[in-house]
Amino acid sequence: MPLVMGNILGNDQMGTFLASVGNVLFHPPSIEKPLKEKIETSLEMEMHPISIGGSNLLGALIAGNSNAIAVADIATPEDIDFLTSFSDVVVMESSVNASGNLLVCNENGVIASPAVPLDGLEIIAEVMRVNVAPTTIAGQDIVGSLVVANDKGVLLHPDVTDLEVEIVKKTLGVNPMVGTVGFGSPMVGAGICCSNSGAIVGSETTGPELNRIEDALGLI
Q1: Closest alpha carbon to 58 in 15, 113, 122
Q2: What is the model's pLDDT at position 90?
Q3: pLDDT mean across residues, the chain
Q4: Could you tell me where the DSSP H helices lie in 23-154?
């Protein structure tokens, strides 16, 4: 069951509440057991509950690959200690701390928002052990909300430019496609959480959107 639908905490923004990092999925502690089982069956990842600084918006606050995790500076020392048990941790500070909104990561590379300063890009490249490329997506800085990727493919906001597509393709090492989620939303990063095995999307997602997501992420 590679692609499933659902709602989380009364919301359909799966990519905002769930953070897929390497082979680990971080999820809010309070999600219902049936949803947790559905996610586990689809994504086939280790599942671990956590909140970051008391927030359940894990997909907006965490990003990374199997080598390292970037987390917002609202994380408590206890949060950081927990994340460090999985890999190295980078704390993103000041106005560019929403890691999940500003980074798109896979095992091949990282797409970063132009809002991330140069020294931050250098640190991310070092700890995640991949190339990092800054770019907008559809002219916007919140790249993590506009892109969803795994190691097989990537789905982009439909208004992405040709130059942005080339940067994504070269950096993440996969062929990009464009699409929507949740009955026409271009915010595919916010609406989808995926692994190399599956994806979970909001319950309003249409059949054609599901087909496109499966194709783009190599889940067929």
Answers
A1: 15
A2: 96
A3: 96
A4: 33-43, 58-61, 77-84, 99-102, 118-128, 143-146
